[in-house]
Amino acid sequence: MKPIIGITSSMELDQKKYMVNENNVRAIHQAGGIPLLLPYITGDNDIDQMVQQIDGLYLPGGYDIDPTLFGEEPHPKLGTIIPKRDKFEFSLIEKVLEKGKPILGVCRGSQILNIVVGGDMYQDIYGQIHTPLFQHSQRSPLQHGSHFVNVLEDSLLAKLVGVTELRVNSFHHQANRKIPSNFLASGVANDGIIEAIESKEHPFVLGVQWHPESMLQVNDEASEKIYKGFITACIEYKRRNDKKR
Q: I need a surface site. Which of 54, 69, 98, 130 has the fewest CB within 10 A?
């Protein structure tokens, strides 16, 4: 059976509906997973049961993240935040990590993952970094690779994509800053922005700052390998744990 992949969703400020870009759903399904959209719920027992039902967790992009989660006041350039999403994802990620299930985070997903494990982030890279930066909110089509990322040799990301340089798209004004010691920065742009993080302790816990789900529209090979690798890791986790039952 195909692995069930939990996908978190976004909301508008009025909190009347959940939203997920279809490219995210399509990317998971195309790679061989069954996408399952996860609503925001409260209560540890309910989240435990939710985690039990999924074989992997996919954290897509969305609005900004509440800086009080990492001990900061809001920067003037901080954008929209949805506290209900932050709270839900924080608890969900902690429980998925405890189970050792695979996680793939994209853009905001990479940032919330880093915060949960003890890292922090720039609330606005252009307002908080005082050296020249690239255009990280590109004015070109979603699927266009607008800048390069250097991939750390022997990292999970390098093993997935098979190269040490990627061309990626870019739609963000926030970025990871401090990475905890049990994680590593496995992808860095030429201007110093951290573009990928991964766990040193889990078989597959990866966050990327770009949007591979959009680059799949033009059959980007590296994006296909990232999603295939994620789904393969979920299948392997499912097989190991099915044998234990």
A: 130
pLDDT at position 42: 87
Catalytic residue among 136, 172, 202, 211: 211
Among candidates 226, 97, 107, 235, which has minimal Cα distance to 170?
107
Q: How far, in Å, CA of 194 to CA of 191, rounded?
A: 9
Active-site option among 107, 147, 195, 198? 107
Whether 107 is a known active-site residue: answer yes
List, for residues 213-240, the tens digit of each pLDDT value: 999 999 999 999 999 999 999 999 999 8
Q: What is the pLDDT of residues 159-176, one digit of tens each?
A: 999 999 999 999 999 999
